What we know:
It is built from twelve helices and twelve strands. The protein is of the alpha/beta class and 365 residues long. This is Radical SAM protein.
Amino acid sequence: MTYDRLDLVAKLYQPSGWPRILEAASGSPTGAPLVVDLDPTTFCDLACPECISGRLLNQGRFTPDRLAALARELVDLSVRAVVLIGGGEPLAHRGTRGVLRILGEAGLAVGVVTNGTMIRQNLAELARYASWVRVSVDAGTAGTYGRFRPDRKGHSVFDKVIANMRLLAAEKTGALGYSFLVMSREEPDGTTVTNHHEVLRAAELAHDIGCDYFETKAMFDDDHHIVQVPRATLDSVDRQLAEAARLQSDRFHLVNSSTLTALRGHTGPVQPKAYHRCRVTELRTLVTPSGVYVCSYHRGNPLARIGDAVTDDLATIWRTSDRGIVDPSRDCRFHCARHRTNLELEHIGEGAGARPLTEDYDPFI
């Protein structure tokens, strides 16, 4: 049987996570999250003008010893999957290699979201232990990359990133993705620079590298609302993706994010929610050097902070915290990828859900 790994609702019905799914669906606190987003550091070696976490960078880090201890705590909590991500660049922390090793050898699934500049230094661990690595490239040429993803000296490191991705493609045991965020910016002189015209070129490059998928996404603003784009831009992206469809095979897929789907559906930047408690916060959480937060959409939000992983162990934080401090109807009016998951958890809690599956296939709910 083939399962859609983008179907976050269907992923709820996997047997190994089902007991905690039922706890969350009932509105009860769970004993531990199933998935944890972990920011090893707030440092990043790039200086992207559109970085949604720009105001949170360079504000702290875990020591290598504490980072390793966190990895062991995640194992002890029976977390099923961990995403190494960031405000910062996760591979910039010298302890990340150890985290990959600890989690991987314990059997946890590990995803990595990276800018790709430090893949070479972490190649052995990424190739062996990462279930997937998604590289944020957002361009198809060095020139466009330099406009949107410059390093701290204003230079383009596009060629370095692509070379690193080729190294990983040759060694990987998990999936490798090429991520393309559709962006535009008005310059001080009134001109607009954009990257949308390079979607096809980037997709062809991803295929040539040996990536498993190419993903296109829409931008968020600082409050996580989807940035609306002109219809002509969206049409251009769709034409290029239609042409890129010839590249698809069992080994290479084009992935459309829910954000682009929302733009096509003219849903606007606001996603209203009628419920007052996010049940997904009992199943996923975010751990960063600046605090533990109910979810990654609220990274850095003091009103959504539930603990301090620098000083306290995760089991204690989870046992003593209130994950209901965020009211989605009030605090989450942006587009949330797990809105439908929350609605499904309500159905499950009412006894109207589907039957659990007979096998696991993807723990990244």
